[in-house]
Design goal:
The complex is a heterohexamer, with three copies of chain A and three copies of chain B.
Chain A: H1 7-20, H2 29-54, H3 58-84, H4 90-101, H5 105-117, H6 126-133, H7 136-145, H8 149-153, H9 156-164, H10 167-187, H11 191-196, H12 198-219, H13 225-248, H14 253-264, H15 270-278, H16 284-318
Helix pairs in contact in A: 1-12, 2-10, 2-12, 3-4, 3-6, 3-7, 3-13, 4-7, 4-16, 5-14, 5-16, 6-14, 12-16, 13-14, 13-16, 14-16
Chain B: E1 5-15, H1 19-28, E2 34-44, E3 47-50, E4 61-68, H2 70-80, H3 83-87, E5 90-98
Antiparallel strand pairs in B: 1-4, 1-5, 2-3, 2-4
The chains are: A mainly alpha, B alpha+beta.
Bound molecules: adenosine monophosphate (AMP) (3 copies) and sodium ion (3 copies).
One sodium ion binds at residues 74, 100-103, 238, 262-263, 265-266 of chain D.
Chain lengths: 319, 104, 104, 319, 104, 319
């Protein structure tokens, strides 16, 4: 509950309400783009610096493998459900499923904030896991889409390159590496921008996310009730799977929750861009609405505290 | 008195991420050039959209404009025709007068 | 050989805040769609302007573009005609060739 | 005088001089939009947090009522003068008068800075008063415009909704409420962005305001000498009324000065947008030039120190 | 039935810094007005460009549009013709229908 | 070497690599414009505040004169080489040479960072020298271009005005003066934005510069091998001249290095804009590629440490 009273969440709600009330409040596109680039760089640096001081651990290996597998396999489950219960055609089901296999950086960041406030900060290497989970789901998604509408039109390898070189992934990974190189001391001079300012700027970004989410919801023609249900069911299912695996491989509560949120979250940066290219026939309005307008708010408001509780329970269980 | 010559002007409204595909085609048919403009929003059969760069531009569109001669225009249109539905392109062709016609 | 069909292209330069009024009209006359572009400045009888979003966009303009068939064009023009002076609209109509004419 | 030597004012002057010398210095539109959103959020949060710690007082009730009345009534006075001395037609007189009844957030913010530096920080609830004063003037303005050019074309209620939901008002009020909810402790993590960075960013915004003001002045065709005079007379008259009322209801010097500046200032965010919609026939170039290019600079450079002096005197007088 | 009259529409793609020169010409030939739009990128004989404002806009282009009558159009074209190559302008002329033709 | 491990340089390299790998990472134009304005204001303020506390010294006179002469004369040398070895026509040779006479603010800023980290911070007045060196080179360049293509078309004086009033120069100089006026105490409230945040924001800007540099290089049709060689030879030659003069007039190591970097650097803000106006026939793709894609990276990565070493040696030599 007190999660809801953090400024970050409150600004998200403010954005949602403003859009809901049809206020003309808008965050300039460049600002949101800037903020999302900033968050990528900041979180990347943070992770790198943490690794630099704590070093690599076996846990990273476990969590990394778990993350990779989740990103590869979750889309298959989602695809099946989207086809059957969701009543979507192959292409759209494949496109949507890829989003749920991949991750939402901002959901992760928000979880990170909340957990840190509770003194359960996840391990720094989870940011590496975050980066690892971005793309495999895209490959699974394309594999599920089978038929090569555009694939005929351009080689798969080409697309894979484009996906791996997606701007935000490059910035995230690059900053992560820079963080490892510069370490705690090298980070100090830039900390005022990338650390001290973080929470405040995150508020502005979530204000925008609130606006975007509700506006997307309003303009999403092809969103059926069944799909709305799945937009909530997927994070629950995937989050649970994430929590179980996290606890199973022996991660601490914070880190387990983080893994759960990675599994539960749906991408709305790297994957949509990739799907637009690889499966242009798929309805962008649909997958963006599901990941951005339904799953994201659910995770930020309900998912984080929920999976944190479950994680606490699970971790006890296993130890 | 400035002399002008008629040329074709092809305008294509396309999703930002697909621009790189379209560019490839301009290379294939060897267009003399093109210019791109940013669209900030619109509405159509699939609903309303606003420029939205958070989502990797998946939700935003740009306007591609190229001035070319009759033959190139035919060639270019034939090249993009198959992508029309798949990419959801909005294509218009019109005639404009240009100075220094030779460059197109 | 790609077949094209003539359609009308209506372009309207309008103050950003008035866009929502214009949009209402597009709903009333049921346009198939429109696209909006940002203008960055200009000059006219009432002097010069630059895009200026501090003042709630009161000082900035956008370009509204819609492709439609003859009848709709007439209908739309008739609908906006009364607002021309009050809103200080700049309206131009031209003919363009489109592919997949049925969607307009 | 030392008011003039604060960096905030100096950057405003720099902007003015640059535009005056026809330098091509321009602040990207998105940046100014971003800064104005930032200032709204920051000032809103600040007010809310102050309320959270000081609680509501009777003064708030007094100041609030005073503010509401001023916003409702000042346009009537202005309208009369604009019609007679200003020689404006009904529509333009009404549109302009609405601006002077409403308030300029940045003038208020600047006053706040200057007063705080002098150790006379206004009470936090004045930010609530600021929000209260934004819209009533618009209603008076439309009332004065009587004839329903567009009002026929769209219901008044609709317009009122649009005005109350103006992006900046929503952000200001929303942040104010968030401030109240999170309080001092919740504000701490975001303070680096919304408090520490405030003055510096205000400098950049005022640099842009300086540019805008002079450029508007240069491109304002319809601005007559009489209107320029009124652009200076209005803030003086309204500011005096504000000071008297403030002192009368027993506000302290800082708070009285703040009320005076609210009365003296003219809106250039919420009102212009509303007028463009409600009275499109009114000349936007005119009301923007008056509020932004004449009254704003006057208030920032002369008004603030002036009314501060008067307030000091008045408050003594009444106590 | 709304009456429309044919007018000329001149579009010029020009480097941002040169805009002030072009504006001077609009003053000299006394154009009734113009509007400017931002281009975000393009490709041509001299290679590819993207909007780039760090370099004082030297690397970015804008689209200048003016609606004018036959005579003014001739006059304006004659005035810019000498600059075409030096400024690397891309100029197109087309015919559009306008309402309230007298203002142009 | 440890120069290469500073976050600022690492982000520059990251940008370069991203563009090299054809990643679609892009920094919104408005953000880069904003950052470059910010850097101008921040460096200007810094210089002014330093002057305010240290006062003017004779050194400033020496360094200033040296800077002016360098800016005026270096283009002549460059022009000769560009015509002969570079095989460029008059107009292009003149345009390019103007860039090398003028200065790159960001190169200077980066040098400043690196030197300060090494405890050899250059004197504050060097920022005045920086401002002084921006424009003379443009005059030399135009003089070299002789033939009056556009000069016929518009008076020289007009162009000179436009150049001196170039936005970034006005902002730099204006902030410098503001810095002198407000001094250390007046600077304090805005220091969080203009000082504390500086290095972090510089990282973001250099990330963008890395992207721009490599993309320019890729799209530069007219860049020949000979010109690439000159793009590296010029900074070495000019930097050496700068170091010698700096040491000769008795500046300390840090300040000498700074003067060297001013001489070695090539403008990509004020000069390109001016050349586009004055010599539109000159190929913008060419001079931007040389200054931004070759000389800038060379200076930032190799030039700074190199000339710092040489300066250390030279200064010893002369004392
Ligand atoms: N008749 C039209 N005129 C102008 N733009 C259109 C038109 N129809 C569609 N568009 C644009 O194309 C986009 C996609 O159209 P649709 O696929 O019909 O939703 C819309 O959001 C508009 O931006
Ligand atoms: N002849 C024209 N061609 C293109 N745009 C124009 C023209 N006349 C006016 N405009 C645009 O419409 C705006 C308002 O025009 P006006 O009401 O005449 O000041 C101007 O600022 C220009 O942006
Ligand atoms: N055929 C064309 N159609 C549209 N835009 C063009 C065309 N040719 C050139 N351009 C634009 O004009 C710019 C300069 O052209 P160029 O001088 O040929 O490199 C290009 O970068 C494009 O933005
Ligand atoms: Na996921
Ligand atoms: Na007021
Ligand atoms: Na130099």
């Amino acid at each position: 509950m007190e999660n809801l009273l953090s400024p970050v969440i409150l600004f998200f709600i403010l954005g949602g309400l403003a859009a809901f009330a049809r206020s003309d409040l808008t965050i300039p596109e460049t600002l949101s783009k800037t903020l999302s680039l900033y968050l990528m760089a900041a979180i990347g640096l943070k992770g790198g610096v943490l690794i630099a001081s704590n070093g690599f651990t076996l846990d990273l290996l476990f969590a990394g493998t778990a993350g990779l597998l989740l990103s590869f396999l979750l889309p298959i489950l989602a695809f099946a459900i989207l086809r059957s219960f969701g009543k979507l055609d192959t292409v759209n089901a494949a496109a949507v499923s890829a989003h749920y296999g991949s991750v939402s950086v901002v959901t992760f960041i928000t979880a990170n904030q909340v957990l840190s406030d509770k003194g359960m900060a996840p391990a720094g290497y989870m940011i590496a896991v975050l980066a690892l989970m971005e793309t495999p789901a895209i490959i699974s998604g394309l594999f599920l889409a089978k038929r090569g509408s555009t694939l005929s039109f351009q080689p798969n390898s080409d697309l894979l390159r484009e996906t791996l070189l997606n701007g935000s992934i490059v910035l995230l990974t690059g900053s992560f590496i820079i963080g490892i190189i510069i370490g705690k001391d090298g980070f100090e001079p830039i900390a005022p921008v990338f650390e001290t300012g973080f929470t405040g700027l995150l508020c502005l970004f979530l204000l925008d996310m609130g606006l975007l989410a509700v506006r997307r919801l309003r303009n999403a023609r092809s969103l059926t009730l069944r799909l709305v249900i799945l937009g909530i069911a997927f994070p629950i299912i995937n989050g649970l799977i994430g929590t179980i695996i996290g606890a199973a491989v022996g991660l601490d509560v914070g880190t387990t929750t983080a893994l759960a949120m990675l599994a539960a979250s749906a991408s709305y940066i790297a994957v949509p861009a990739a799907m637009r290219l690889a499966l242009p026939k798929a309805d962008a309005g649909l997958y963006l609405a599901m990941s951005l307008a339904i799953t994201f708010p659910f995770n930020v408001i309900i998912g984080i505290p929920l999976f944190n509780q479950i994680a606490i329970y699970m971790v006890q269980l296993w130890s | 008195m400035v002399v002008t010559t008629p040329r074709k002007k092809i305008e294509i409204l396309i999703d930002r991420p697909l621009m790189k595909r379209l560019r490839q085609i301009t290379k294939d048919v060897e267009l003399s050039g093109y210019t791109v403009f940013d669209a900030i929003g619109g509405e159509g059969g699939q609903g309303r959209w606003r420029d939205d760069q958070v989502t990797g531009g998946a939700g935003s569109k740009v306007l591609f404009i190229s001035i070319l001669n009759e033959e190139k225009a035919k060639e270019f249109l034939t090249a993009i025709e198959p992508l029309l539905d798949e990419y959801g392109l909005l294509v218009t062709v019109s005639t404009v007068e240009v100075i220094r016609a030779d460059r197109f």
